[in-house]
Amino acid sequence: MRRPIATRDKTWAKNFARYLASRGVTPNSVSGASVVCALLACVCFLLTNFEYSNATQIALWLGAALFVQLRLLCNLFDGMLAVEFKQASSLGPIYNDLPDRPADVLILIGAGYASYLWNWSPTIGWIAAVLALMTAYVRVLGVAIGAQERFLGPMAKQHRMAVVTIACVLSAVETLFAQPHRAMTIALVVIVIGCVATVERRLQLIARDLNATNEP
């Protein structure tokens, strides 16, 4: 089952996927590129702690936002290349799912260390990363034991990355107006709460599927 992505049906997405296919780009290489994008976002986050000019700081925040979104675009195009352009391989399922795990960890932990105002902010980043892994684990566990595969939120991957992206933009605004950096830590708290709710919701639906299967 594929993650439902509305952007997949957009003309620009189809045209770009067609361009990638014509250039011989493989789905697995695009999946690997998503981790590179996440690493670059993490580097941008960490560099915000150095004494750069406001313009450089703003560029780092916006750069992080850009790389987070590029990571999501990689997640979009690898699936399109594999399915729409018939480039699926035997290792495709591994490349499709595994890179998302280090990508989530790099982005969320990096965000926790980004110009943090409170000493506990990095801890929140680590907690968010662990819970992001838990949401994926519960989804895969459900499939393994016979339940439906569900990508629902309220804090699935695309939701987490949207919250981080918005926080990056708000952090750039905070820098512009010389305000303390609160936005990212608040965003990570929202992600933590949302991931807990997501895990609980997915577990409830898995239990419902299993109970329905075992009913006489």
Descriptors for this entry?
0% strand, single chain, Four Helix Bundle (Hemerythrin (Met), subunit A)
Characterize the structure shown:
This protein has a single domain (about 5-215), classed as Up-down Bundle (Four Helix Bundle (Hemerythrin (Met), subunit A)), CATH 1.20.120. About 75% of the residues lie in helices and about 0% in strands. The chain has helices spanning about 10-20, 25-45, 55-85, 90-95, 100-110, 120-145, 155-175, 185-215. The model has no long low-confidence stretch (mean pLDDT about 95).
Q: Can you tell me the overall shape?
A: globular
CATH architecture: Up-down Bundle
User: In the CATH scheme, what's the topology name?
Assistant: Four Helix Bundle (Hemerythrin (Met), subunit A)
DSSP helix count?
A: 8
Structure described in brief:
With 216 residues, the protein is mainly alpha-helical.
Which helices and strands, and how do they pair?
Blueprint: H1 11-22, H2 27-47, H3 54-83, H4 92-97, H5 100-112, H6 121-144, H7 157-176, H8 183-214
Helix pairs in contact: 2-3, 2-5, 3-7, 5-6, 6-8, 7-8
